[in-house]
């Protein structure tokens, strides 16, 4: 029976393997649908919009060839067109009737000259003639793209774009873009069970081999010697009787069908083959409606807006910000190592750049000066992008290490001035240990920017810096002291009125120490919270001036001031400027809450002799 079972399993394996291989070879069809075109003559850039990308279902693979260096990137259509403003480009088109790709030249109207207008017969008043000079021409590395790839000769990029996205193809912005463009989409598998049949057939084949080997081993053991030991003579068999019985031989009895385990084994072998054939044929016909073209797709209802109403999208997505922060962290780490302000300026601006440039200058003059903390790239625990389709754009984010509590929590504010510029860090602050950030809109929705002179907050954003600076100078005597919460404000204990009084006392009578304040180079940036308040970032410069009060007396420079100013003493005075970056939560007008300090950073940014 083991041989019969092995044969049955072999037959089932042959059925499954044969069915799977037949489907793979004869019924699977092509794996991809592909369209291609050649742009003649090519220009610097080529664009494929979302309608062309979605002309076939499924994920898209874009391939560009024909140029020494190729670049493919994709992002929101509005961002792609904004980056291309002022430049001509070729738009890839799709003809649904012929199912062919083509191309169409798009000329930028912002760079049309008066001569071009006259030759085209277009009235001068109908065309904008203000030229745009784009200093950045290479799209590679732009923070606008959701994904990109650069290569030589042939470049391919698999994407999952929808109708709101577009692809941009270029070389290096100087040479023409690759002329050969190919789009491909995977075709749904027409034989979804072929691989399963082959796998099941392989498993049954191995099972059949196991049963066959087992049966052979059992047969070998059964035909071996039954008894071992000394051989003895067997007694003679008795002789049969010579008497013959005469009579009717009884008819053989008809045995009933076998019962028990052996009957089940025999019956299983007889049933296994037709059942296997039926199962194989039945499964091979169970393709889904989508794959056979007979199914109906039911759309899932989604939220919609009123017709004609444009909802601004957030500046960046979480995955996009992750890539941006990684690039910023890598660039700043390289600049910190080489003390290169020019490199740092590609990813820093305003107060964040000022404090780092001063640190580079001091470290170049004195190797004992400590470096500033690096800008971390992850993990992002808070993301607050601006929802807008214009520039400049702002993003607030918090990076916190949940494992190591000794690593300070860093808050960053990124700004992108124009489509062809990358995001740069304008504010980098260390959050207060007990800082409570109010609830904000989801990152997928984005937040609105608050005007610097908004009167809907407890204090206008452009007045917050000097109001807080007045508290640092006067303490509780400041008229603004009642607007700010000082319970968790650690900066007041560091550079507030008690600190300044102690420092004035240490100078003595032979010199005078004066503290003044002014608005720094950083702009006031505010993003709205859900309670109609705002998170406000401001920059305050505090100027410390020491002068001798007696004729012939000198004042000495100390610490970092001595290194940055390059002088040890002065008979006229020394001026030190400290840059302070401040993050506040400002509640809405009429609220009983107070303005809270969320985080800060400070450092020497300038020093000189008077």
Automatic annotation (TrEMBL):
Residues 225-244 are annotated as: Disordered. The keyword Transmembrane helix applies. Keywords: Membrane, Transmembrane, Transmembrane helix. It holds the Pfam family DUF8094. Residues 314-609 form the DUF8094 domain. The chain crosses the membrane at residues 193-217, 271-290. This is Putative membrane protein YphA (DoxX/SURF4 family). The lineage of its organism: Bacteria, Bacillati, Actinomycetota, Actinomycetes, Micrococcales.
